[in-house]
Amino acid sequence: MIYVIGIGSGDLNTITPEAMEILKNCDALVGYKKYVDLVEKFLPPKIVYTSGMSQEISRCEFALTLSREYHKNVALISSGDSGVYGMAGLMLEVAKDTDVKIKIIPGITAANSAAAILGAPLMNDYVVLSLSDLMTDWKIIEKRLTAACEGDFVICIYNPASTQRPKHFKKACKIMLKYKSPETPCGYVRNIGREGEEYEIMTLKKIKNCKKIDMLCTVIIGNSKSYILNGKIITSRGYEMKSSGRNIFQVS
User: Fold this and answer.
1) Has this prediction a pTM greater than 0.85?
2) Which residue range forms the structural domain that includes residue 98?
3) How would you label 229-251 residue by residue, b for 16+ Cβ within 10 Å and e otherwise?
4) How much is the average pLDDT of 124-153?
């Protein structure tokens, strides 16, 4: 059996009880080295296989070999949720012509974790968009971003900028500023749930030039119904804020 597990941010508090139970009892742990380092310290000794960025297929193939040929229960891990820019889809594809059973174990996404830190920005319809053009052409990313703006969605951005593509986030902000007010509430969170976690709330016009935005950040851009209250972003769900004047609770 191969369990494809989302480990949240990697902090013990953001790993679901189901995921932790499987991680403790599996025979082998496979993943990107940085993510394995986050969870291995919580676990009893086991077979461990790590690899670097852009070696996702090799990790899936190794997990498949361990399960198929050596009859091991394998945990293949991703940060956040394994089905959101994670390893779930690829593992299913790699194992498609085998009889190995695959089970996907959900995790807390970066979008959910960042939203909780910033307030309640995802209270209404939202989209999640990665600015990495390693596997998706930038023109497609621009098209999707434009559509999200035209639909007045809250936008959660993964992989906003890196040393190889430092201008992608600024390009994205220029597109959003064509449709969204410069005063639209925005925020970023870096190192969610890990040492050095930090966040900041600001406007779209300010975040466009923020020098702190990098691959360690998750960014949330509000919509026309988003606002800042007591230092937190809220996206209105549409509830009418008025009291009926009646006490509907009874204490017994």
Assistant:
1) yes
2) 2-108
3) eeeebbbeeeeeeeeeeeeeeee
4) 97
